[in-house]
Amino acid sequence: MSLNLWCTSAPLFSHTDWGGFLKTAQALQARGHQVTWVSGGQIAGALNAANIPFAEIAQTGWLWPPPPAPDLTSIPPQEAVMLRYRRALDTWMTVDLVAAAAQELIDLAAKIGNPDAILTDPFLTAAAIAAEALNLPLIVCGWIAQRDLNEDSLFPVQKILADDSQNRLQQLLDHFGLQGQNFASGATPSILSPHLHISYFSESWYQADAANLLDQTLFVGGSPSAPTTPPPNWLAAIPPEVPLAFITLGTTFTGDYGFYAWAAQAAVRVGLLPVIAVGWNPIPPEDKQKLLAALPKGARLLNYVPLDHLLPRTKLMFHHGGMGSTHAAVVHGVMQIAVPHAADQRGNARRIAQSKVGFNLTAIDVKRGGLLEGAKALLADQWVQENTCQLAAEFAALGGANAAAKALEEVLA
Fold first, then answer.
1. What is the set of domains in the chain, with CATH numbers?
2. Is the dihedral of CA 275, 277, 282, 286 positive or negative?
3. Residue 189 pLDDT level (bands cut at 50, 70, 90)
4. pLDDT at position 68, please?
């Protein structure tokens, strides 16, 4: 039976990933299903390039670009953590934006017909609202299903924001007259499908969280994609024997310029050439000049890098613990140093350390020289390097996007 499926995401290319979301859409399409990606027009080109039909909506509920952030190196660490968490909450649950986006999805269904199910990135609140309003199954791609968190398990900053997040969700549910069947009911709201959560990691990756996992979680791992284009000129110009370090803060938390500079300096100190991706958020000219002045000679500063070309040449990755960045490093067998900023990043960074493929550092660790000390330790430890390769093989054995597509067919049959 051919299925009609919507894939929904924030209008950022990184939110088509989560370790394999877009690949799952392609696998479903290859199996004969009708797949339409629904999001903002900013990613239309990327979906067209992937040969996935695209339906544009004017509002996705994702606050983008985020409001300008102050220089996080100039404020106390605890203040910086609070700012990052509040900005993260605003990004995925600003009430008026989410309400407008959910209504757009409902209106789109009235215009072109209901799909058989909605597949969503883990933070698109509007998709969870619209699926309940339309009485459609919701499938979460890129996130585990877990038991409700109680207040005692939260970080202090999460406790402060818990009431705010609950109030925001209740406003949305009241607006649409819903019960919240696609949300966890614990201390902090999160999207929770009663049907299926596809994780592009492995069960061992979440071994410390095993007691909290729900049965609708499916682990499918993943593998690197073979490049389909030539390497960019700047990468081809770097001699293949030169070892690289990749430095990124993803697409949202890109204003922490001090991180780029400190990581690049650490990379050079251990003999690696730093390649830095700062995303597409505009950088004020004066800040860009300061960043360039703080980078070591030879460092490459770019908006975007093709990971399928870069990571096979990378020895070490410095990043924020984002899901896509973490997954990419794992499947390529690259050691990692993560400095989480907010949301899911703390859990990802913790699992990097628990899986013995890298370090989980705090902002205070960074200011105390932790990036350099961590890089030295990882590059000197052959066991960690071998472990990263073993974990990559474990992920590959789970089947990736093809396994996800097959499971979706079974759930929706």
1. 4-222+398-412 (3.40.50.2000), 233-397 (3.40.50.2000)
2. negative
3. confident
4. 67
